[in-house]
Each structure stands twice: as structure tokens, then as C-alpha cells.
Design brief:
Strand 15, helix 14 and strand 16 form a beta-alpha-beta unit. The chain has 1189 residues and is an alpha/beta fold. Helix 7 packs across helix 8.
Length: 1189
Amino acid sequence: MYLKSLTMKGFKSFASSTTLQLEPGITCVVGPNGSGKSNVVDALAWVMGEQGAKSLRGGKMEDVIFAGTHDRAPLGRAEVILTIDNTDGALPIDYTEVTISRIMFRSGGSEYAINGEPCRLLDIQELLSDSGIGREMHVIVGQGQLDQILGATPEDRRGFIEEAAGVLKHRKRKEKALRKLEAMQGNLVRLTDLTTELRRQLTPLGKQAEVARRAQVIQIDVRDSRSRLMADDLVQLREALAAEVADETALRDKRADVESELSGLQAREAILEAEIRAEAPLIARRQETWFRLSSLRERFNGTASLAAERVRVLSPVEEESFGRDPEELEAEAIAARAEADALAAEVLTARGALEEATKARVTAEGALAEENRRLAAIARAAADHRDGLTRLSGQVDAMRQRIETRTSEIARLQEQIAAAQERADAAQREFLSRESEIAGLNTDEEGLDAAYESAADQLANAENALNALKAQEQEAERERNTLLARVDALTMALANQGGGAVLLAAAESVPGVLGSVTSLIKVRSGFEDAIAIALGDAADAVVVSDLDAAVAAFTHLKSSDAGRAGVVIANSGASTDWNFNNLPASAVLAREVVDAPEHIRNSIVALLRNVVVVESLADARQVVAHNADAVAVTTSGDVLGAAGGAGGSSSAPSLLQMQSALDDARTKSEALADTLSRLKFELVTAAEAVKEATREADARLSVLHESDAEMAAVAEQLGHLASTVRNANAEAERLKNALGAATSALDADNASLTELEQRFEAAEQADVETEPSTVSRDRFAGEVEMSRQAEVDARLAVRTNEERQSAATTTADNLERAARDERESRRRFAERKERRAREAAVASSVLKGAQIALSWLEVSLQLASHERTQAEAARDARDAEISTVRGRIRELSQELERLVSDVHRDEVARAEQRLRIEALENKAMEELGLDADTLISEFGPHNLVPPSPPAPGDEVDPNAPAPEPYPYVREQQEKRLKQAERGLNLLGKVNPLALEEFAALEERHQFLNAQLDDLRKSKNDLMAIIKDVDERVQQVFAEAFADTAREFEGIFSRLFPGGEGRLVLTNPDDLLTTGIEVEARPPGKKLKRLSLLSGGERSLTAVAFLVALFKSRPSPFYVMDEVEAALDDVNLGRLIEVMKELQDSSQLIVITHQKRTMEIADALYGVTMRGDGVSAVISQRLADVRDNA
């Protein structure tokens, strides 16, 4: 036996699936510190059942699962698979190769399997214990464990030897026996208490049973007398009912006569009502005719009155007075129009004269003005001459200086205009340059905007992804919690299954209990109902190993009063096939849809050997019709066989369905756990992505803000430049305006200078006239005055003629309008007169027609009134007759109601009588269990009354004659009933169940006494087993200690030449509890205490102890983790020699850094840590290298 391979997946640093192919001999695992070498040792210990997290160098067991790195997500489970070569049969299992696997989920759950079959940790420990590998794991020597061996207590060192010697299975057997003994002692005490209590209860319950027997006899008399009285009451009630029924006929006959007369009167009433209904329209029509004629008469009266009034109003009136004749007005208008035309001609003539006068005035005024100018020039020349040529010459010089100033001002303005234009051009060029720069910035801004928007979109996408992952995680967490709750509920539901649950809970104390049928078998999905129905009670049963285990299970249930349970005995059925004929296409053999372990396969097949699963009842019928011994079960749970069947609907799930649902829920829960692990890692990644996207968006936004600030600065410069351009242009424009004004002033000054020069020359050359003549001016002034007066007269003439023309035109218009109005007034009067005459004629005709119609209406109204009166008289006669008929109908109805009431009252009385009879019959059925006819036939008054039987305990004279039956007398039976009831009252409170309870209690007392005897015998048997185990443990331990002590002395002397070491028992007289002390004396030293040894000496001493243990009780393999780390080269060589010796009988797996240790290895495994934090393994078989060399 040796370790063949080790596969790790998700275990600590081995994230990926890593397999180590191990071979017999020495295998060294090497690598740098922190690469994961010791994780290989931890994996071996963990897969073989190690339960201590600290032993695996962790804080909690979940630490063995790969926790993830910055490049790889954490995993949701860890799995280690160990394959052992069992060719030599060292392990107690029928396989040449054994594979042990263990899976740990991050949720805390674990799964164990042996050769792929799920198992318990206990199964693995029991499998390995026979090969010397126990819970202490002495075959695995980890880092620091050497010092722990020396620092261990003597009792802990004893454990190493016991584990190597295989004592642990005996101790486990003893512990199991002690647990049984403890439980048995409790059962023994409980049974003793129960039997004592039962004995205490039997005495009073026996007295109650005696009273119950006496009460039974008295109750017979009570029942008999009560039955006879009840039968008598029933007979009397039936006779009274028959008498009452005979009186019903007379009332029914009288009611029939009244009903017949009432029917005749009701028929007459119906006829009269029909006649009234038939004549009612005629009367209504006559009344309506009379009302309509009366209304028509009133209308005609009103029409006649209105026509007479209109005739009076429209009588002829006096002629209306008119104004002037329209012809005369029109003639006067024509004359006025002609006068206006003549005046228009005069206006034209006057206007021509006005124009001539105006022209003459303008000519005269022009001549006068010219003359005035001539005279002013002469006067001015004289004044100039008088002022002197000096002042004129000074004015000329001043004007010339002024012109020079103007000229220099214009030059200065032109220079300023040029400078302003230059500034404007420079600012414009700078503006254009900055404008092209801001255009480039706009282009860059668009790129920055796009980059920022892209970063913002990435941030939004990352946040959305993060939120989606959070939602998925929450949803997965909710689903997982729901599934876990479902798992818990289904587990509790499967656990609470009566006696079966008790047996499963007591599997350790009840030998041979393998588990429930539902947990051991697997049913194909969709066939759970069918298999549950086919198995019947076996579906809820518990699987036991053999018949003895079944008997032990039943005994345990009875002893603990835990109810009943079914059992299925493993490998109890034959695996013979069952032949079926003509199966439908949908048919499936029940045993084919069930997967069961080998040890119960035959039992399940035997239970389902003749069962066929079909889809419908039709297919089931076909199966049973062609196979007489077959049983067909539908997928919905209906079962059909040749002798019968069962079916219908049921909402309660079967145990198989619950087990399948439990497995499904666990699978989904595990899948969700993996999903949650993946989502948590993805959440971390998504959160990092959000942070990165946030940083990127912030950076893009900062750059965008800087670009905006730069653009704002350039825009501000553009504003300044634009302002400069505008100011320069405005200044240039202002200067141009000033230049224009200066140029205009220069031109004016040049003109003034020319005039002054001319005046100066004229003043020098002209002969100045001092007193000019005014004759011509006076003449021109007189002509102007005359022309002005002529113009005024002409204007007055034009205005007068225009006013006269306007007045004439207005007069003509007024006359024409008056003529038109007068003619229209006369036309309207003629039309009104004609209309009044026509309306008066119509009103007169209407008056005459109304008077004629009124005369005829009076005749018609008298005739209608007569017909109405006749119809009302006939109606009154019928009303009187129908009133008489209705009065008679009311009388007959009252009489009929009285008769019906009497009949109804009698019927109610008879119904009550029947109800009393029925109640009495029901009472007889409920209290006596007899129907009415049987009660009367057996207990009626016509039957003889049997005598009462004697009560238990009464003295009976054997010589007295037997009592005879006697006739029924009601008073006697009533007295008999009272006496019997008095007897029951004297007995007091009677326990009707005392007889049954006494019998049951007595039977249980006998059963418990038998159980008590069995427990005492079992206790003695257990004590004997414990004694045998102790003897066996002492023997095995003594042999193992002796061999280990002998080997320790030899190994110690080899590792410490000249030294001395031995193993000493702390209590040699008690081999069951004694500890082991280690005494070591290195060469040249006298000390023996281990605490005084050096580190290397302590390590060698511990190695000596372990090697002695290995050699005395060899194990198939040993694992050593850097045990030679503290040894020098010499001691290392000695240890290597010991390892070579161990190589002959065991497989060695050594974790080492020592080159010399690597040289003796047959195979070498290198473990390294990659950059992503995951361990990787490379291997080399050194034997191949040596052969090649």
C-alpha cells in the first residue's frame, strides 16, 4: 500500500488543478520559502480527515480555500483527491485502488467520498485506522511538530504508540460500548421507575374495574327499561298521528267548496273588469271630445273678440297732412345748381387775376431789394473807406494767419487719423490672430468634450454594471437564503418521521443502521411519486445490515417507546429478472429508474421486481391485462394490479419527493454559493472599474476646465482687441469729422480772405460816394405797395366767389334731399293705408267665420255632453255590481284563509308530531342503536319483559326457581328505570375504560418486567465486552511499547553514538492509563531532562522517537516536513541512513531544503510561486536521470 497520486484544486495557493503522481520510495518536495510546499502536507492531512484549522496553519477551516489575488478571483470551494494503491489489501475494502476526496465550500459545508461514493468522516477514519493512520496523524510530521512531540504530555505520547499499534479502534469500540452502557443504565433506571409506577397504579385501577363490571349489569337494566319506555312512547305517538290524519278530510272538502264558489265570483269579477276596461276607452274618448269641444269654443270666442277689436282699430282715419310739393323743391334745386356753376366760372376768373397780381408784387419787391443792396454797398464802401485801409489790411493779415493755423491743424489731424488707423489695423490683425487661435481651441474643445463625454459614459456604464452586479448579488443572496431555508425545512421534515427518525438519530447506539431508504437511493427526476407509491411503507423505512440489526432496531423502538418504523434489510433480495409481456411504449421498469448502492441494490430490486411505471391509467390497464402478477404505477401516483389498486389525488409530497427536492435545493444552493463568490469578485473588479472611470472622468473634466479657462482668457483678449479696434475707428472717424470741419472752415476762411482782399483792392481803387440818391428806391417802394394792394383785392374776390359757390351748392343739395324725403313719405303713407284696409277686411272675415263656428260648436257640445252622461251612468252601474262581487269575494277569501289556516295548523301539528316521532326514532338510534321498527318489534308493549340478571357480588340462591318473563306495564318499567339509575348514582363516578386500562396496564407491566430482565442481561454482556477490550488494549499496548522502546534505544544510540536513551512508563501497574516519558542522555553528558537539550539534540531525540515508532509498527507511508532543518551535516547523514532503512517498508514524502536529502530521493517535485500568487509544480524522476547518466 502506498500513496499513488494527490490532486489539489482550490486548496490554499493551488488555485488550479494540480496533480502529484507519487511512487514507492522517497519523494522529495522542494522549493523556495513561501512557494507552497507545506500546503502539500496540509492537503494530505486535510483529505484524511484533519478537523483542526490550527493544525492546517489557519484561523478557520474556510482558510484552506483559495482566497484570490489581484489577478485571480477567489474560489468558492477547495477539493483534494488522494488515490491510494491497495494492491496488498492493507485497507479493509474490496478495491485495489482507493480514492478519497474531500470538498470544502466557502459556506462551511463539507463533502467526503470514497471511490466517488458519498460517505462520512467517520467512514474515512475507520478505513484508515486499520493501517495505523488515526486521528493523531503521527505519519505526518509537520513543521514544528518535532518539538511538540517532546513537549507533549506522557499521555499524548501514549496516543502516538496506540495509533501506530492500532489500539484506537479498540478504544473506539470500548467508547461505543460505554456509551451504550450509559444509555442502557438510563433505560434501566427509567424501566425500574416505570415498573414501580405501574405497580402503584394497578391496585386502584383494579378497584375501578370491579365497579365498572357492576355498572355494566345495572346499565343493562337501564337500557332495557329505557328501550321499552321509548318503544311505548313511539307506539302512542304513531296512533295519535293516525287519528289526527282522519280529521283532515272534512276540512279539505269544505275548503274545496269555498274555493269553487270563490273561483266563480272571481270569474265574474274578471268579466266585469274586462267590460269596464273595454268601455273605459269609449268613456275617455267621449270625455276627451267634450273637453276638446269646450276648449275649441273658448278659443273661437277669443278669436271673435280679437277680430272685433282689430276691426275697430283698423277703421278709416283722417288724411295725413303733407309738406311742399317735391316737384317745386326739385325746380328750386336746379336753379340753385345753375347759380353755383356760374359762380364757379367767376372763381376761376378771380384766381387768374390773383396770380397776375402776385407776379407783379414779386417783381416789384425784387427791384426794391436790388436797389436796397446797391445802396447798402455804397454805404458800406463809404464806411470802409472811412475806417481806413489799415483796419482792412489787418483783417486780411489776420485771416491769412488763421488760414495757416487751419492748414497746420488739418496736417495734425491727418497725422492723428493715420496713427488711429494704424492702431485699428494692428488691433484688427491681433484680433484675427486671436480669433484663429480660439478657432483652434474650439476644435480642441470639441475633442476634450468628446473625451469627457466618453469618460462620463464609461463611468455611467461602470456604475450601471456595478449596480447590476449588486442587484444580482442581492438576488442570488435572497435565492440562496430561500434555498437554505428550504434545505432546513426539508431536513427537519425528513428528520421528523416517527420511529424511523429515532433509529437514524440513534445510529451509533443501534448497530447495523445504515440510513434511510430515501437518503440512500436516487430516483430519476419525474418518477418520485411512482416509486414512492410502489415502495409503499418501504419508502419511509430504515436500511439495516442484517436480521440481527432489524431485531435490535425494533427492540430499541420498543424500549424507548418511540413508535413504529419499517426496515429494509440490506442484500436480502434476489436479483432475478422479471419477464413482462406486451408493455406499452411509455412503460419503464421501476428498478431501472432507481439508483441504489450495491449493499441495498438487491433489496430495492426485490421490492420493485414486478412494478412497471407508465404514464396513464390506460397504459396501466394494458400492463395488468397482459401480466397477471404485475403491478402498474402511473407517474401521477395511481397504482393498479390484478387484485386491486389505489388512486386519486394527494397534495402531500412523498419522502422521495422531499429527498429529491432536498438534493436539488442543496445543489442549487452550492451553485448559488459559487455564483455569489464569483459575483463578489466581479463586484470588487466593478468597484475598481468605477473608481478608475471616476478618476478618468475627473481628469478629463479638469482638462476641459483648463481649456475653458484658456478660451475665456483668449475671449477676454478678443474683447479688449475688439474694443481697441472700435475705439481706434471711432477716434479716426471723430478726427475725420474734425478734419472735414477744419477743411470746411479753411475753405470759408479762404473765401473770406478773397473777399477781404477784393474789398481792400476796391477800397484802394474805388471812388467812394458819400451820399447816394434814394429816388429810385422810393419809386420801387411805391410800386411794391400798389402791387401788394392789388394782390389783396384779388384774394378777397377769389374768397368771396368761392363762398358764394359753396352756399349755392349746399342749397341745391338740401333742396334735392327734401324732395326725395317728401316723395318717400308720401309713398309710405299710401302703403300703410292700403295695408290697414286689407287687414280690416281680413279681421271682418275672421269675425264672421268665428260667429258661424260658435253656433255649430254649441250644437256639438250639447250632443257630446249627453253621450258623456250616458257612458258615466253605465260605468257607475258596473262599478256597483263589481263592488258587490268583490265584497262577496272578500268574505269567501277570509273564510278560505281561515280554513287554510286550520288545515295548516293541523299540518303543522302533524309535522310537529312527526318531528317528535322522528326525534324519538333518532334518539333510539343514537342512545340505543336501534331503528324504530326494530325497537317496537323487540321492545314494544306487546312483548314480555325478561327478568334482570344478578349483579356481580350479589348472593343468588341456587335452589330458587329461575324468574319468568312478565307482561309490560309502564309504571313498573318507570320504577325499574329509576331503581337502576339510583343504583348507578350509588356507585358514584364510573370509569368506563377501567377494564381495558387495567388489562392494558397489566400487560404493559409484564412486558416491562421482561424488558428489565433483558436490560440487565445486556448490561452484563457490555461489561464483559469492556473487560475483553481492556485486556486486548493492555496486550497490544504492552507489545507495541516494548517494541518501540527497544527500537528507540537502538535508533538513539545510532543518532547519538555513545549516548543513551530509553522510554519509561509513568505508571507501569496500569497499562490502560499510563503515560510515556522520554529519557535522553547525549554522549558526554549526564542530563536526562529533555528541556535541557539543545535544539538539534531535541530534534534528533524527537526523530529517534518517531523512527522507533515507525520501525516497531510500520505504516504504509510517512510525510515529513523539514524535519532535518535544525540538524548539522553529520546528524543529517545519520538521519538519511535511517530514512533509507524506512524506505524498504514504507513510502516517504519529504519536504526539504537539504541537497543531501534530495540526492537519496527517487522522485523530485519542485514547487514554485508564480507572479499571480498561484503555486505550480514540476516533477522529475531521478531514477531516469541516473540511468541516463
